[in-house]
Each structure stands twice: as C-alpha cells, then as structure tokens.
Amino acid sequence: MSTHAHTAEPLVADDWSGGTFPYRIGHRKLGMWLFIVSDALTFSALLIGYCYVRVSSDAWPTPFVFYPSIIFSTVMTLCLLASSFTMVMAVAASARRDRRKARRWIGATMLGGLTFLVLHIYEWIHLINDYGLKPFTLPAKWLERWPQASPLFGATFFAITGLHMFHVLTGVIYLGYIAMRIRRKTHEDVEISGLYWHFVDLVWMFVFPLIYLLSVDFHPPAH
Amino acid sequence: MSTRFGSLGNLMKRQDLILNAICVLFAVGFIVMALTNVRRAGNFISIDSLFITLVSLMLAGIFMIIPLLWAHENGVLKNLFAAEGDDTPVEPVEVHFAGSTKLFLIVLGALLGLTVIEVFLAYKDVGLVLMLTILIGLSLIKAALILAYFMHLRYERMSLVYTLIPMLIICICLLFIFFPDSFRQLGLRVYR
Predict the structure, then answer these.
(1) What residues in A contact B175, CB-CB < 8 Å?
(2) Which pTM value belongs to this model?
(3) What average pLDDT does range B155-161 have in this prediction?
C-alpha cells in the first residue's frame, strides 16, 4: 500500500511507510532495543515465577533486617540511579561531541556500578557465611523461626540477584571498553551502551522491592 | 496508487474496501463479545470476566489496526501517529538528543523519592498481596520514567515505541495467566 511508488524511496517517510530508516535509528541501536526487550522478558518470567511461589507459600522467610541488608540494598539502589543519571550526562556530552567529558561521566557511571557490585557481593557473603543460606536449603535457625518455610528462598534470591549482578558486571566491562576507545566510537555507540546501562538500572527497580522489601524483618528477635 | 493504474487501481481499491470491511466486522464482533460478557457476567470484577473482556477488546483492537492505518493513509485520520517535525528528512547518523540537565535531575529526584517511599512502605504491615501490588505499581512508574527519559524513548519515533512496547506488555500479561493458581495453592494448606 505504498504511496511513494512513483518517486524514489525517501530516506525517512512518515511513521508507517518504511523507508531506509523506518525507526530513524541505526540498526545497531535497534538491535540493542530488541535485546533489551527479550532480556526484559527473561527477567519478567523469573520475577513473576518468584511472585507466584511467594504468594502460594504460607511460610516464607522474611530475614532482611534493617542493618545491614535493607540499608545496603537501598544504598545500592541509589548508586544505580545515580549512575543512570551520570550515564545520561555522558550521552549528552557525547552528543555535543565533547568526548573528554563523556569519558569522565562514563567513568563516574562505572564507579556507581562497581560500588553496587562491591556492596552486593558483601551482602551475599554475609548471607552465605553468617547465616548459612544455601540455594535449596534454609539455615536451621530460619526453619525454627519460620517452620515449613519454602526452601526456594535461597534459589530465587541467588538466581535473580545473581543474574542481575552478572548484567551489572558485563555493563561495567562494556562501559569500560567504550570509555577506553571513545575516540574511535561514534555518538551512537555511547548511546547504545547507555541504553544497556539504563536497562540494568530498570531491572533493579523491580528486583529491589520484590526480593528485598517484601522480605523485611519487622520484628527481629532480640539477641 | 488508485488513479494511475486505471482498472487495476479500482480493483485494489475494492480489495482494500473488502479487507477493511472484514476487519471492521471482526472488530465489531469482538466488541459485541466483550459487551455481552459485561452484561451477562454476574460479577464483572472477577478474574474470568475481566480476562474475557480484556482479551476480546485486545482482539478488537488488533483487527482495527488495518482499517485505522488505511484511514490514516487516505487522509481520513490525520496526524494520528505523526511525530513532531516528521517531514524534514534526517541523516542516518544525525545526532538527535533532547532533554536538559534540569529535566534529568528532576527525573532522578522523582526516582529517588519513589525509592524512599517504597522503603518506607515496606515497614508497614499491610498484607502480602496488597504490598506486592503497591510495590509493583510504584516500580512500574519508575520503569516508565527510566524508559521515557533516561532511555530517550519519549523522543524517539512512535513507530519504534509501538514496535517494542505493546508486545512486551502483552507477553508479560500472558505470564500472569498462571498467577491466580497461587491463591488456590495457598488455600489447600491444612496444617495452619
């Protein structure tokens, strides 16, 4: 139903007529968008599966006390949000062709991501060593407090936050690569790495409330 | 396409009309189905009734896409999907960046504020399902802010947005199909 049959194909037609750049973005950016959509479905499936198990269990451990777990995860959230902001600033600087500033802002973004990683690994070690949490076995003390609790707590926690942590790690490496070679990279490259980083941030906006905030310990036992 | 090829154009015009008529017919059929369901379901706010209504309306919407696009192409519906400044040709590598530092700071502030509200709400004991709903709702707002401003989707073409987002939302909604069973499983427990 093309209306442009008699003319040369325009580079950009109206929204639905195709053309050479039907979305007005390059093919690599479109590729990143498609990857993000598929990755979003992976995380949705995991998180919805977790919510399902969570709602269908009448006993679920709620072990996250204010310090260190909730404080740490909140600070981690702030780190990711701040790093998203610095990434936007990097893309803005790169749009002005100010590569030096873009590199600095990307460096700040990587710093936010690394802080996130360090705090999260500390949190994992705390759960594994201090409590004795395993993927399919709950610590004995937790079973005393939440009898018949689902052993899937560890599995869902480690799988979802682990997959997210892996995304943060690859994101930091990806950004490092872009920052290192920024002189040879176009604005679009910086923008694409920004898209990936914002997506990692976006996923954490669901992981944080569902994994951490739903398992807050209201009444921690007195020592 | 219609005037230049004479009879062929007329044939295509007729085909367009038939195709549109069929699509409109199906769309009307599904809307009638949704309305019948609303009228005949005893309790409308139940999972079954809402599900059937939503699916019917969704199918009606899908069938309406072709007639609406046709109408748009023939000038009946103008500027339905037009983005701003669409008629100026752009270069493939054109740098296209919108938004100011102030705007991004406002978005960052909103995201931080919503996070603090979430942490605050987490310490209110309101029951699991209500808490889950509130937290997911707030997170959806945050996700929309990140998508629209940080990921720049608000300033992209609508065709990109319509290609990426509706199918994602529909797939995620489909994942929720199994969800009501979790309430039944919870009810099966006897040792409480």
Answers:
(1) 44-45, 48
(2) 0.79
(3) 86
